[in-house]
Structures are given as C-alpha cells and as structure tokens.
Amino acid sequence: MSLMASFLRRRPAVLLQVRLLSSSTHLETTSQQQRIEKILVANRGEIACRIMRTAKRLGIRTVAVYSDADRDSLHVKSADEAVNIGPPPARLSYLNGSSIVEAAIRAGAQAVHPGYGFLSESSAFAQLVEDKGLTFIGPPASAIRDMGDKSASKRIMGAAGVPLVPGYHGSEQDIELMRLEADKIGYPILIKPTHGGGGKGMRIVQSPNDFVDSFLGAQREAAASFGINTILLEKYITQPRHIEVQIFGDKFGNVLHLYERDCSVQRRHQKIIEEAPAPCITDEFRTHLGQAAVSAAKAVGYHNAGTVEFIVDTATGHFYFMEMNTRLQVEHPVTEMIVGQDLVEWQIRVANGEPLPLSQVQVPLSGHAFEARIYAENVPKGFLPATGVLHHYHPVPPSSTVRVETGVEQGDVVSMHYDPMIAKLVVWGESRAAALVKLKDCLSKFQVAGVPTNINFLQKLANNKAFEEGDVETHFIEHHKDDLFVDPNNSVIYEEAYSAARFGAKLVAACLSDKEHSALKESHSGGSSLHPIWYTHPPFRVNHHAQSTMELEWENEYDSSSSKNLMLSITYHPDGNYFIQIGENSDHALAVKTSNLGNNNFRVEAGGVTMDVSLAVYTKDQIKHIHIWHGPHHHHFRQKLGLELSDEDETQHKTSFESASHPPGTVVAPMAGLVVKVLVEDGAKVEVGQPVLVLEAMKMEHVVKATSGGIVEGLKVGAGQQVSDGSVLFRVKVSHFEFSSQNGSFQFLVYNSCLQCCDLSGAYISCNSLEFIKLLHYLSVGFDNLISLLVKFS
Predict the structure, then answer these.
(1) 3-state SS of 149-163?
(2) Domain named ATP-grasp: which ranges (predicted)?
C-alpha cells in the first residue's frame, strides 16, 4: 500500500476533503442547485447521531424526533431541533409515519433520513414522504416494496436467474398449507417474516411437532416488530456463512458495490461481530459475489444505499440470494473503514440528485475492519436483553483507526422499549491480524457498569482460535460454546475465576484506601502549619501500622449463586505500600503501591507488575457497587458498608449479603418486559418444560416455561401487563398425593426428582429415601403398600 493510500485510509475525514477539492467545479455547480438544507432523522440512538454528524459536517441542519422516553437522549441533544412524536412504545412513536412526516413539515425540513430499523424499509412511509413533497434519503418506494417483501424479492431474483435456497415464498398463509409446504421442503426448516430484519421473528424448526408453535410465535413477533405478520419458509442450511455486499446506486442508473462483509457470527439470529472484507475467500469468488449483487440492484431500478445478503454453503462453496436490505446497514462502518468513504454523505448527495462520486474501478480496498456490537444483555441467561441505568460509561477514545458509534452517555437509561445496543466498536488495521489485535485491546478498555453487557463474551470471541483463523459460520457460537461459555459446575474454571476476583478485590481495597487518604488530605489542606504533619500522610499509631477492614461481595458474572463474601484487612506501611489480606491467616498478603491519577484511575504496582487500574463506584438499591478494570480483566463487587478505619482490637461490624429467595417451584421473570400471551390458566396442570406465558422485550419474544410438573398457582399476570426483571410470575405446586394413618395425615411430593414428605400443614418431615423408608415403618405401612407407593412415584 502506498504512503498516500495509507494516509487516506487512516484519516477518512482527510480523504473526503481531498475528494471535494478534486471535484470543486462539480460541487460549486451542485451547491447552487442544492435543495436539502435541513434533514429530519426519523430514528433514534446511535444511527441518528451518526447521520447528524455527517449532515452537520456538510452544513445541513438536523431535526430529531423523540418519544417521551427519549426526551433527554443523546440524539435529541445532537440535533439543531427536536420534535416529540408520542409515548414510548415504538408503534405509537417511531413507527408512526404520519406523525413523523408532520414533524418534518412543521420543522421546515426538505428531506427525511430513515436510518435503519423502524420505518426504514417501509415502502408506505417512503411513498408518504415523497407525496408530501419531501425527499426520502433512500431508495424509491417501488424498490423497497419489491425487495422489502422477501417472498416477492425471491420471485424476482429467481426470474433473474439468481440462485435461491429451496423454500415457500407464496402469499397464502394458511397454517395447514404451510405445514404441507414445510413437509415438501424437508426439515429442518427456517421460518422468517417476509418483512423486516434483525433476526426478529426467525425460528429454526427441527421437526413437524414444533411447527405450529414456532409459526404462530414468528407471526406474533413479526407483527409486533414490523406491523406485518406474513411468513416464508426455507430449507435450513446447516453450515452457512452470512456474507453480504454493500451496493450503491444513483438516479442516473449507475450502480456499484463496495465489497463484502462477513456477518456470520451471530446470536439469536442477530449479528454481534462483523468484518470487512470477508476472510478466507478468493478474489474470483469476491468478484462473482459483487457482480451478482449489482445485478440484483439493477433488476429493481435501485438507487441509494442497499445491501444484498447471501447465504454461502460452506459444504459446497455455493452462494444463494437471501434478501436485500433497502437501507443503510447497522454494520456499514466497517465498509467505510476499508474504502475510506462516508456512506451517509453518499446517501445525501445521491438523494440530492448528484451522481456517484466514484466508478467501480475507482473504489479502493485497503486493510481490514471489525465491528463489535456492545449490548446490554445477560449472556448466561441466553443473551436476554437487560435494562437499567448506565451508571458508568467510558468507551475507548476514538482515533483515525478506532470509531465508537453510540447513542447513549453516562446516566442514560437502557429502556425495555427499544433495542438494547449500547455502542458499536469499529477498528481498522492494515491486515486482519492487526485489526484483530486492536479489537481485543479496545474491548478490554471499554468500560460499562450499571447493566450487564456482552463485552466479556466479545473478548472470548475475539480470542477464540477458530475466529482468529477466520473459520466462521452462523453456528459459530453454538459449535464453540465450550470455549465461549463458563460452566458454573466446572470447579477448575470456578477456582480460576475466584482467584482472579480475589486479586481484583485486593486492588480495589488498595485503590479505595488511597482515595480515602487523598480525600482526607484535601479536606484538611491549608490553614494551620501543623496540618501537613497530621494530614499529609495516612493515619498511624505508635508501634503499630494503620489498619482498616473492608467487606466486599464478589458478583460472579456467570453464576450469581456462587458469589462470595470477602473480608479484607488493609495495613498501611510507611514505605507507601498497602498490604492486603483476605481472611485471617490463610491468605498471603499482597503488597500494593498506588498512584492516584484522578477520575478513579490509578497506576498500581502489585506482585512485581505495574498496571493501570480503573474503578467505577455507584449506589443502586442501597448497595454500593464497585467495578474494577485492569488489563483484560473486569470484576464487579458489592458493598453495604464503606471503608472503616479502626483499631485492631475493636470488633468489626460485618454485614451479610443475602439474595432474595423464593419457595420451590417459583418462576420469576428472566427480564423486564411485556406479557404478550398467557398460555394456561391459574390452577392448570402442566408438565416440566411446558410453555406458560410469553414475554416480549426489545421486540424479541421469550417463552417462560414450567420448571417442573405440577399445578400452576399464583398466575396473576395477564396479556398487556408490564413485569420487572426478577418479579414473581407464578409458582408450580409439585405433584403430590395424601396418605392417612393412625399417626396422622401426610403429603408425599415429587420435586426436581426428589422425594419429599410433609404433614398437611406443609412442615417437612423427610427429604431422603432412607428417612422415607423409616417414616413408612413409623406409619405402620405394610410391605405391599410400600411397593404400591413406589410404583405410584415412578
């Protein structure tokens, strides 16, 4: 790569300036004809902020729209003007096209940019914008209609000779017909909505027995997310790669591609790490893929930004058209990084009637880029979305090779109403290996506290050997789950995690002690000349070293039931070291020397190693939460009592941390969400694993199932009701029968495969088989009755 190419690659803004200077005559002409002076961004979050940033650089004013929940959000603060469009539910605000268009007209905007998601792929919205005399910054409504309907798009592509995966793409949606079509295709099959994207509504069905529930669930989720519940069926390719091509067209019939992206690494059918260009493909394959994408775009008269998605069968090497996204993709920044172009600027210029700024042969391809999506989600709970306050939010600083696309800031609330993505971390390197090193480094420095995130999981992904080699496919996470997920029952892994947490706790104790002493010195600075004697050094005692204690509870990220209480003793020595010990005498004291850098950042020497340490401290639910980042490690501790300086002989006040407990059989909400359907009535008999109700959060459905067989009790929630994370939904009373004898009346219960006995008041008498047999003898039950009871249990 030449020096100039490297310079342009590493500084995209400079590239844009060079390109503008090289075509100044053209720009001077078009600037006199420019119609777009103000853009309304019909979206929220990071994409709204992203669009506004480019618009402002081009001297275009911006208008934000916001729901009541987003009144103080970052995208509202980033705009020149903002208009409220309704209450928090998306269907009443960001999916209300008429309100958005009215807001654009009232604000005097000439154009509407839809971003991605919400109404970005609604042909009706695009048509409405144009009918009102505004410019829609996107493709024509006809192309959105043709390609947005996945069934129609497959028919068009089939007619054009583009290879398709076998499936059913018809308009008839009768469930019995669909079952017959699924049988024809052959299981496993993929059920997916004909509209929308983002993995919402997709279901993999392995057998005919699961078809009906999966089909109806997909319809409900599609209706909630896109307002249309039609479904298509496809043969499910068992080892696919997801490779997509960025295309761009202008209103003069010119269409080109800007190379491909690999988006194979997914969870819940949603991408979490994307990269460009795709690894492990030949130049010949890349050329054929790009040509097919351009042909697809030309077939529907496409202009503006779009993405043609392909499924690549790793077993055969063949690729198949999957769908076309008629909008800017979430992952467009990785393409921008390898071609050095601002695609939002291209969108605005094309919408303004300008030709594409480059021809196909002029599109550069330089280096490699990754994008990691950072979500508020609970990885151990199957990546369920999480909500809460971002008490601490410190993303890595941006540079010429690092971008952070975000729509939040510290103190914001991650709401249950919208997608839980916090940020997109985008990095560039001269090679894939160099870009991956940068990705790992930036992930280790990306700090979020207040909600659970997938950052630790992303780090495991980036460090996976197969991923490092580019050996990816859409089942990557499932196939490598043993390496990516921590088994809470693995004692070796647990001890490693616990040992690392103990070391982190000692660093926390030293840093907080140093901060306490620094605050003490600052509070007594100035005044009497005696002050430096008493307050510029930590407390001391004659013939003793100053000592304090601190209690922390380690929050085990992967298994909350195995969290540990840690009692630390902190001893300060005159040489500036803190000696930190956990417990009484069994633990080796660690010597830690700290240097307070401000803003809860420290330079620490411990165990012969110097490292940078960052802390986040906040209070939530009357508990102090302490997070520490050092190197690639992040630990979370809780504390009910602050640091207490005390005499060695004084009794230390200790507080135990007790987690909420519920009676056996209680089922709690795994996330905050909306109850969309209750499948059984209170008092109904259920089997273990039977669906009881359906929750929805961030447009994703989650089926809550019975944890054991028995009778449903306390089911008081109903469809349309909001529930909080951890709230009690219902209880399953386990199977039982009553037995009477001269010694009393009893119930025998089966719960989690354990035999239990209690009297009718509910007091347990016996919980193991030996005691059960003794109890039967006590009850004077004959041998024949014993056999009868055991058969009844089996």
Answers:
(1) CHHHHHHHHHHCCCC
(2) 154-352
Instruction: State the 10-residue block means of pLDDT for the chain, 794 residues long.
Output: 36 34 35 76 99 98 98 98 96 97 98 97 96 98 88 84 85 92 93 80 93 92 84 91 98 98 93 98 95 93 96 91 94 99 98 97 98 96 92 97 98 93 98 99 98 97 98 95 85 87 96 85 56 46 67 84 85 89 80 94 95 95 92 92 41 35 80 89 91 82 87 90 86 62 46 41 41 47 42 38
Among all chains, which residue has been given the structure tokens 């911006």? 62
Q: Cis omega (within 30 of 0) on the bond before 277? A: yes
Q: What is the pTM of this model?
A: 0.78
Q: Which residue ranges form the domains of the chain, and what is each CATH number?
A: 34-137 (3.40.50.20), 166-236 (3.30.1490.20), 241-484 (3.30.470.20), 491-524+535-645 (3.30.700), 666-733 (2.40.50.100), 736-793 (no CATH)
Instruction: Quickly count helices (H) and strands (E) in the chain.
Output: 23, 44
- Check whether the bond before 188 is cis (ω within 30° of 0): yes
Residues acting as catalytic residues: 327
Structure tokens at 39: 């853009």
Q: Phi and psi at residue 784, in whole multiples of 5°? A: -60, -40
Alpha-carbon torsion (510, 513, 518, 519), positive or negative: positive
Cα–Cα–Cα angle for 606, 609, 614, rounded to 5 degrees: 70
| Contacts of residue 21, Cβ cutoff 8 Å, sequence gap at least 6 | none
